[in-house]
Design brief:
The structure holds 2 protein chains of 2 kinds. By secondary structure, chain A is an alpha+beta fold. Helix content of chain A is about 35%, strand content about 10%. Classes of the chains: A alpha+beta, B mainly alpha. At the A-B interface, helix 6 and helix 8 of A face helix 1, helix 2, helix 4 and helix 8 of B.
Chain lengths: ~250, ~220
């Protein structure tokens, strides 16, 4: 396959960026999107140019490191991560636009790499449980109803890649934050911090400069892990409950 | 608690949802009353007088109406201020646009902000036209809605402003009602279809219902 790539190039956080056009040839349809970028970078290095910086780690679709907005879609045209996207999703001769996640809370570090530490700070605000550490407890010691376990697991699938923020026209982190809150709030292990978790994490989300939710549903459409839009509804419910409880105290 | 709600994006959306539902409930009652225009002059003009005396002898003449107005003003202001502040925040949260643009979301969703502005301007005109009579074409008569309605919808601009605003209202309710349910945490997977259907039915009924009035005047059904 022969492709024309238009890639966002930006020297550093302070520099202005622009789209640069590159041609790549000999791309196999079985290559992943990141392997295709590796080919481009080899080409750039050989010609003495600066390679394109992009985030990647496991390349198995489970770590949440890879990003990229491909032709206007976070993680590209398939519902998966960029590393699991294959070149067979494109046609020979295509022009592909590759841009970084765009949000005020995700500043560009270089080229296609953005700083997602805002997500880490949201997790630090309450995305954990205060449980005794040590070896894993006996699974039957704390019974969890099947429906709750399924609900928790569905939200625990979030890998924190930030595609929801990238896709949201408001740069909102509602889907990420709600997935993390719901995952723990429904379980008995998360119950002691049920109220403080939702209040603190939402407050941190706002403090990071993410936008608000207008329920466009773009986040859930872009999510490679299929976190449902209703996740936000559940978080709103938890937030209202916690606010009422805090007022009574 | 008020501080927590107002300072949070989730809380401010709650303010929007609650004020939106209050305005929606008012609109349903408002439409119901307005449709009396099709039963003739006597019926709707009597209804207008009844409204002014509603709640008597407990309430003084016009008190119920002023109470309703007070609630509505608070709702409109709360809704608009929250919308403005949240929109500003949303725009700041996405300072640079994507080079590769794609059409996003449904038409109703994309037009919430401008649709809201149109509705706000419409409300100002509507009050000046049919409540205070300031910009009313022809002689405005208090407590004579039938004559006033005929006056307004006998002008081309009255019809245009009204019909455009009612179409904007339908779109606004279509996305707004369902969104309010999500914001208030009452949405769920099992209820989603019912909520979307209710939003569509409400939007359609209110738009068609209100538009039927200028159409009635234009076709001579109301004259």
């Amino acid at each position: 396959m022969k492709l024309t790539l238009r890639v966002w190039r930006q020297k550093n956080a302070d520099a202005d960026g622009a789209m640069s056009t590159y041609e790549v040839d000999g791309i196999s349809p079985d290559m992943s999107f990141l392997e295709m970028l590796d080919v481009l970078n080899e080409q750039l290095i050989l010609s003495g140019e600066e390679p394109v910086a992009f985030d990647h780690d496991c390349r198995e679709g489970i770590c949440g490191a890879c990003s990229l907005v491909i032709n206007g879609d976070a993680h590209g045209p398939e519902r998966t991560t960029t590393c699991q996207l294959h070149m067979r999703s494109f046609k020979d001769g295509d022009t592909i636009d590759i841009e970084p996640w765009r949000a005020a809370a995700f500043p560009v570090v270089k080229d296609l790499v953005v700083d997602r530490s805002a997500f880490d700070r949201i997790i630090q605000a309450g995305g954990y449980i205060t449980a005794p550490t040590g070896s894993a407890p006996e699974a039957h010691a704390t019974p969890v109803p099947k429906a709750d376990a399924d609900f928790a697991f569905e939200h625990a699938e979030c890998i924190g890649c930030g595609a929801c923020v990238a896709a949201c026209p408001n740069g909102a982190a509602m889907l990420f934050t709600s997935a993390k809150i719901n995952h723990l709030n429904v379980l008995p292990q998360g119950a002691p911090e049920r109220e403080t978790r939702v209040l603190d994490m939402v407050a941190q989300m706002d403090a990071e400069g993410f936008g608000g939710c207008t329920l466009t549903g773009e986040c859930a459409t872009a999510c490679p892990k299929g976190i449902p839009l209703m996740s936000i509804t559940s978080m709103n419910k938890e937030w209202l409950r916690a606010t009422r409880k805090a007022a009574k105290r | 608690m008020a501080r927590t709600v107002w300072d949070s994006t989730v809380g401010k959306k709650t303010v929007m949802a609650v004020s939106g539902v209050i305005m929606l409930l008012y609109l349903v009652v408002h439409l119901y009353g307005n449709l009396k225009v099709f039963f003739g002059l006597q019926e709707i003009d009597d209804y207008a007088v009844w409204l002014r005396n509603l709640g008597q002898p407990f309430m003084h003449h016009m008190w119920t109406i002023w109470l309703t107005r007070a609630v509505l003003v608070v709702a409109v202001v709360a809704h608009a201020v929250s919308a403005y502040q949240l929109s500003r925040r949303d725009i700041e949260a996405r300072p640079s646009k994507y080079v590769h643009k794609k059409p996003r979301a449904t038409y109703a969703t994309r037009t919430m902000r401008w649709g809201g502005v149109i509705l706000g301007l419409f409300i100002v005109w509507h009050i000046l036209d049919l409540t205070t009579g300031t910009v009313h074409p022809g002689g405005f008569q208090d407590a004579h809605p039938y004559e006033n309605i005929v006056d307004t919808f006998s002008t081309w601009y009255g019809n245009v402003i009204y019909i455009v605003a009612m179409l904007a209202l339908g779109l606004h309710i279509r996305h707004g009602f369902w969104s309010a349910a999500q914001t208030l945490g009452v949405g769920s997977r099992t209820r989603d279809r019912a909520l979307k259907a209710t939003a569509n039915v409400l939007a359609l009924l209110l738009t068609a219902g209100f538009i039927s009035i200028p159409v009635g005047v234009m076709t001579g059904l109301v004259s």
